[in-house]
Each structure stands twice: as structure tokens, then as C-alpha cells.
Amino acid sequence: MVGGHGAIGMAGGIVMTAVLTYIIGIKEAIPVMTCALIFSRGSRVNLYFSEADWPVAKRGLLFAVPTIILGVIVFSYSK
Questions:
Q1: Where are the alpha helices (DSSP H) in the chain?
Q2: How remote is the C-alpha of 41 from its chain's centroid?
Q3: How far apart are CA 16 and CA 49, in angstroms?
């Protein structure tokens, strides 16, 4: 059940972000959650690598990579 897993994963991320924000603050919670999500998504990449539609993935990355870099720059200059 793919749809159910996505809903549970999203809810878990929202709850975890709220809990971490309460415990360590928002400035520290964002990088911690980013690392957790990288490992979570990395395991899925490993699992479904052979099933990827690479032309579609390349088009997505064409827009994703610049916005990731922009996000890093904006977040690094925020106080």
C-alpha cells in the first residue's frame, strides 16, 4: 500500500519536527530533520534504483538542484 506509507511517513515527519522544535529549537531541528530525511529517502533510493524512470528524474533534478542550493544559501544567512 504505497499511499498509506506516504501518509504515515509525512505524519511522522511532522510530529518529529514539532517534538524536536520543542526540545532543541527550530534552528537546530531543521538540520537534524534534514539528516533524518536524507537517510530515510536514501534507503528508498537503494531499494527502487532499478525501477527509476531516468529521463523524468533528470528533468526533476534540473529544477531541484538549483532550489536546494538556494535554500542552503538562504538558511545559512538566516539568524
A1: 2-24, 26-48, 54-77
A2: 7
A3: 27
> 2 with 19: CB under 8 angstroms?
no
Distance CA(20)–CA(32), nearest Å, equals 8
Specify whether the CB–CB gap between 4 and 11 falls below 8 A.
no
Grid cell locating 54? 531516468
pTM recorded for the entire structure: 0.51
26-48 helix and 2-24 helix, angle to the nearest 10 degrees: 150
Residues 6+ apart with CB under 8 A from 56: none
Q: How far, in Å, are 20, 37, 73, 75, 79 from residue 63 at the CA level?
A: 30, 20, 16, 19, 27
Write the pLDDT tens digit of every residue in 15-35. 888 888 899 988 888 888 888
